[in-house]
Amino acid sequence: xxxxxxTVASAIPSVxxxxxxxxxxxxxxxxxxxxxxxVEIMVFPELSVTGYTCxxxxxxxxxxxxxxxxVLHLLDVSRKLDVITIIGVPVCIGTGLYxxxxxxxxxxxLGIVPKRFLPNYSEFYEQxxxxxxxxxxxxxxxxxxxxxxxxxxxxxxxxxxxxxKFGIELCEDVWSPVPPSNSxxxxxxxxxxxxxxxxxxxxxxxxxxxxxxxxxxxxxxGYVYSSCGFGExxxxxxxxxxxxxxxxxxxxAESERFSLDEQLVVSQxxxxxxxxxxxxxxxxxxxxxxxxxxxxxxxxxxxxxxxxLRHINPLPFVPSSDMMHEACDEIFSIQVSGLAKRLVxxxxxxxxxxxxxxxxxTLALLVCAMTFDKLGYDRxxxxxxxxxxxxxxxxxxxxxxSLMQSLGITIREISICKSVEQHFLDIDHDINVHDVTYENxxxxxxxxxxxxxxxxxxxxxxxTGDLSELALGWxxxxxxxxxxxxxxxxxxxxxxxxxxxxxxxxxxxxxxRETLLDIIDTPISPELIPADENGDIKQKTEDLxxxxxxxxxxxxxxxxxxxxxxxxxxxxxxxxxxAQYPDDVIKHWLKVFLRRFFNQQFKRSCLPDGPKVxxxxxxxxxxxxxxxxxxxxLWLSECENL
Length: 642
What we know:
The protein has helices at about 20-35, 60-75, 170-175, 180-185, 205-220, 270-280, 280-285, 320-345, 360-375, 395-405, 415-425, 435-455, 465-470, 495-505, 510-520, 540-545, 550-560, 565-575, 585-600, 600-605, 635-640, and strands spanning about 5-10, 40-45, 85-95, 95-105, 110-115, 140-145, 145-150, 160, 165-170, 190-195, 220-225, 245, 250-255, 265-270, 350-355, 380-385, 410-415, 460-465, 485. The protein is of the alpha/beta class.
């Protein structure tokens, strides 16, 4: 060491959520800069390779493997660099996913340290995605980024060529009652490096700095802290990009808070001074008694060629025929019970919903009818509103009227044509230009009517949108996207047909059954574009966004198992006949699905309440927490290579 000093750095890189290729490029750039500056050890923020705010994307195999490949690239770049680099990566160890620090130098992984304390309170949900390092009872050898690495359950101390010893903890570890850095320092670590993702709140930063100062003072150590900055998702939290370097309670270097630029904070810690102070402090030496560390490894398994030998169900959301009746009965009961609770809670005996003659609004109406029966309410409290527009066809209009009549609800007919025409005049939009403004103007006008009617009548607007539409974002933001309770939000399109058929055959009169069966046979359409010359539906949803049976297939496997695009593609090829969906068609709609799923998350982030009915759900309050600004780059890049 140079007179007992070691040069260290805390780095705050630019980041894009879930874009591992971009993130590793930014990390590599800062590593090169640090090496030029003579930095010997540097630390990056928690989960810096993926971004900390990936949320449920951490369950995606693409992200986990992409992060490992990114580390592999960093190792290749760093072969001729001396700086020891500590980066944050999600790592699979055994059957669990761990929030880890990966330590690299000269193209080699020196070690992997899992996070021990996983916050699962307030804004944090880490136990949803990760396993605690405390759950490891024995050393585990894994193959990671081309290296055999032993992951230790206890204290893992690293040592530089000059003999400086350092330990690692991750974010919440230092906030815990007994931080791992306590035993790491007692085991001999001169410096603690902390990979963190601390969000900003009023007064929190001042508390953090006091905490780090106190910890480094108590441990008579150096403490180098790096926390996420600009580029992390701001869906609900903001990260200030805090880099701090302490030496026994004294802050010796820090970053600029809330900077929009990457930062590299470099300073030197006097390790010789720290060691001297520890030797003089007999209490410190007494506390060191019995503190140990352990190291071991394990062999990887041999990879073999893969051939799929099992049947793949092309309709994973649809129960088998022998289970269909039971499944439909249970799911419909869940929908009815959910709406019943909401009506009782709000003391409301009136609901308002738009009836288009399509599948989704039909199912929502059936749920309302059976809910009112269950509660003993008069069905006249169900106000069904048909709102003919520029694309409404006779078939859907007549089915809507017929169903409302046979179910005995209150019928309102309010044409949107004049109001939308006036709106187009107000905003200077050419009514002959059938673009997104033309379509969404109609959808939002319909929602405005429903909302205002509900206020007028003292009722609730019942939403009709389904799971498949939510996954694709096939809804007008603040139009049909919005309601006061969404009874269909947990149901995929491929199952709704079966559920409506179940109701038709078991729960309604003959006239209603006849109408329901015709609705089932009607092409799916938002009917926002004028009909063709024969008065038939011109705008068919599946021509625009793709076959729902393909999309539901992708949704199920993507959400349930986090399969990579390559695996989704392979499974779909096996599940569907080539004559029905050739390879290029599957690939095309897979790309559409992935692009829309990522780009439309902002709509799912503010969904109305609605009942979960199956294992897959997109509620931002329940099953799916994803940043609205996450990048799809990794997934779409893989699609290009299929």
